[in-house]
Amino acid sequence: MVALRLMHAQFPNMEKVMTQPFVLRSQLYSSVRDRTQVDRDLETLRKEKVLRLFKLNTGQDDHAIMFVEDYLKQMSIAVTKIGPKSHDPVFEWFKCYVINTKLDVSIDHNELCSLLSCGGKVNDDRISLLMNAGLLSRQLIDSNVYCLRLRFPILVPCSRVFLRGGKSFYHSLIVGNTKRC
């Protein structure tokens, strides 16, 4: 999908902002005439494990799209930020057994525990580590379901700009003035 690659390439690359490139589904919809074709292409790329989709906690019904290699980098950044607990094997289990097998944007508690247990003993503390690293969040409607998350530190101060649209968001990253958001 050309539009996806183009938007990925235009994502600002700044050392101070530790965010890997991502694209909003709504951005793709506004750039490509045929939304059905966009959905088909995204589904194909998702099944081929080229990209991942993530439900955003913005109150809007939008999804972030990120290439798997970028997501793994983003995941590594998020894990290192939690300090000494980043050495817990649950992060490797999550990467090997959940990310590689679960393609949906959410996962049931029992399925999460089952997949993680392929690596070792799973308990609530380990799931809490994944949540504290920003890799999972509980779904508000059903607390037995987790949503796979992206941790974008830049999104918190810029959520209003982010909701106004991709160009404004990208501009705020380029300008680097998050205080105005």
UniProtKB/TrEMBL annotation:
It comes from the Eukaryota. Pfam families: Stk19. Belongs to the STK19 family. PANTHER family: SERINE/THREONINE-PROTEIN KINASE 19, SERINE_THREONINE-PROTEIN KINASE 19. This is Uncharacterized protein. It comes from Acorus calamus (Sweet flag).
